Amino acid sequence: MERLQKVIANSGYTSRRKAEELIKSGKVKVNGEKITTLGTKVNNNDIIEINNEPLKINDNKVYYLLNKPKSVISSSSDELNRTTVVDLIDTSVRIYPIGRLDYDTTGLIILTNDGTLANILMHPSFKVEKKYIAKLDKHFEIEDLKKLEQGILIDKRKCIPKRVKIKKNDKNYSIIEITIEEGRNHIIKNVFSTLGYNVVKLHRKEYAFLTDESLKVGEYRVLTIKEVKKLYGYSRNKNN
Ligand code: URA
Known about the structure:
4-stranded antiparallel β-sheet; single chain; elongated; 3 domains; Alpha-Beta Plaits; 6 helices; binds uracil
């Protein structure tokens, strides 16, 4: 049994929020009966209609791995009409990004129409590793490495990196490779700004076991079935 709004959203018909609006405004019927209560549960045998048209369940799941360029927004639409990550993928399927990268961040992001996988990968308990390369505006002090390794308190919750490597430490800038398991917005920038550094460039090099090796910035590829299955594996092994 699944919530009605989730089934509608996962079918690819519209977003979860819009599905809720459709339900509340009485446009949705289940087995011929108008449903206006959010959270009503349905199963595979239930016949869902929207505006008196049967809902087609889109079982054709698609998965793309994009190496996001700068100046692109990580959502499916933008009020300011800026280019979105979805605009960069040549597909007629309604897809959305799993998680976010900032407008000025480059690197790996998955786009899909598979709500189940999105929920798995975004859930904090599933601990998906993400490796970032951060260019900082100054020399990186060794005592800050110790502080970083012990964890930095952001909004009352510690961000403890899995791994940190100083790749370059110049007089005027530094390049740090940092791997974290969490996905809070602006987390890398906030961690370094707490230590007194500005992140002047940020790139996500790895997402789980996926790397940017064969993808130039701006390029994308379809994930293989094997890769998708491996990503689903995160729901079975929370300690991945
Ligand atoms: N952390 C950030 O600060 N920005 C991103 O885009 C991703 C992680």
